[in-house]
Automatic annotation (TrEMBL):
N6-(pyridoxal phosphate)lysine PTM sites in chain numbering: 305
SUPFAM superfamilies per UniProt: PLP-dependent transferases (SSF53383)
Keyword Lyase: yes
Organism the protein comes from: Algoriphagus boritolerans DSM 17298 = JCM 18970
Coiled-coil regions, chain positions: none
Name used for this protein in its record: Glutamate or tyrosine decarboxylase
MF GO annotations: carboxy-lyase activity; pyridoxal phosphate binding
Highest taxon in the source lineage: Bacteria
Classification lineage: Bacteria, Pseudomonadati, Bacteroidota, Cytophagia, Cytophagales
InterPro entries in the record: Aromatic_deC (IPR010977), PyrdxlP-dep_de-COase (IPR002129), PyrdxlP-dep_Trfase (IPR015424), PyrdxlP-dep_Trfase_major (IPR015421), PyrdxlP-dep_Trfase_small (IPR015422)
Cofactor requirements of the protein: pyridoxal 5'-phosphate
Keywords of this entry: Decarboxylase, Lyase, Pyridoxal phosphate
Spans traversing the lipid bilayer: none
Amino acid sequence: MTEKKNINLTLDPENWESMRQLGHQMIDDLFDYWKGIREEKIWKPIPSEVKEFLDQPIPELGQDPETIYQEFKNNIFPYNKGNVHPRFFAWIQGTGTPLGVLADLLASGMNPNVAIGEHAAMYVDRQVVNWCKQLMNFPSDASGILVSGGSMANITALTVARNSFRDEKIRTIGLKSASAQLVLYCSVETHSCIQKAAEIIGLGTEAVRKIGVNESYEMKVEELEAQIQQDMQKGLLPFCIVGTSGTVNTGAIDPMDDLLAISKKYGLWFHVDGAYGALAKLDPKYAGPLKAIEEADSLAFDLHKWLYVPYEVGCTLIRDAKKHRDSFALTPNYLIQESRGLSGGLDSINNYGFELSRGFKALKIWMSLKEHGREKYAQMIAQNNRQAEYLAELVNGNPKLELMAPVSMSITCFRMIQPGYVESQLRELNREILLRLQEEGIASPSSTILNGKYTLRVANVNQRTRMEDMDLLVKEVLRIGTEIFESNN
Ligand SMILES: *Cc1c(COP(=O)(O)O)cnc(C)c1O
């Protein structure tokens, strides 16, 4: 007799009840965390013991879940990045919402692979993509796909743009089928993922023309058109213009109407990187300047930024669904679609993107949009924009502060100034202000360099921020700045 028939290993809990209790505890702890987050420090330095604890060899044997959770509570939970906090303004990072998190838990519990097959998640995914089209006023016969974020959304769109170039059969034959170098146009303020995407899809860095910007950091249209003409004269093949709806530095909006007109005039693909700011369309103030993105050939935008949905999720929309599908559709023998059964149902999502396995990221969007409705999101986005404008008013009203760029969308760039200080001293002063704001756990702006000048940068896609947080931020910048100045003199 062998022992074989008694060996039935599983990873399910030995004790379902205690795991259930642990799960309830986790949820309780999360709710306490969110409810009290405003009173907490936004950020804490990670002690060296914790870093050592997080640098151990792989466990050979298991330990009980309660102990693991305790380890999490001691070593991981307290040292969060802070973008759940009302005064997180670094980079462009969303806050998340409680229901969004619970939706992710449910999605993970159901654990469908949302690529192919006849199951409810496929229909939720399709509905969410349709809602994304409605949010952006794209035609109902456009196509789209949810991806991990803005970078993936941009490269997905640029792949379709490249493959759709004339009748060059680039998908089949590769770029060598094009008679000359394909050239892509964006601005010097365009997000780095566009250049990386151009490199990955085989265009190369040299095929990316970074057009200059005006004093509001918006692409200069005359320079764009002159560059296109010059490239054509050289026998190169201009094929795509990338406009940014909300640049990552200052929230600037490239002149969408002009970019659309130029792309039509020269027969180029018009792509909009709206990772941060396409959703600003919902704020009536920006609906006009962003109207033209409705006519873009493709649009990339993030839902983990300005829809406040937990990480990660972004969306690509493509006006011409056929071009989209023609760029990615491929059905190997192991993925044959049926008309019935589990392999029936909707077109495989893998026909619209590179990733095959996909989580049920649509659920958190589906639940969030149902919980709040489009109206509430429009108000929230407008609120962030008004908060940025209010911060700029506070800055303009104080002679010790200087606004460093026009406020566009929800980004405010400013710095403290000190009479007699040269540029390098101002840089040191503001850098030190920033680091102390973060280290004292007060607020987390980030920094950037604009026209060679170091500046604090407050980017706000935070659903927990209140106007009073802007007052506090200014007060603390002035307090810390004065302390630094006084200790230097
Ligand atoms: C954030 C951002 C990206 C990159 O998006 P990820 O979601 O971080 O991959 C691209 N473009 C702009 C304008 C952005 O703000």
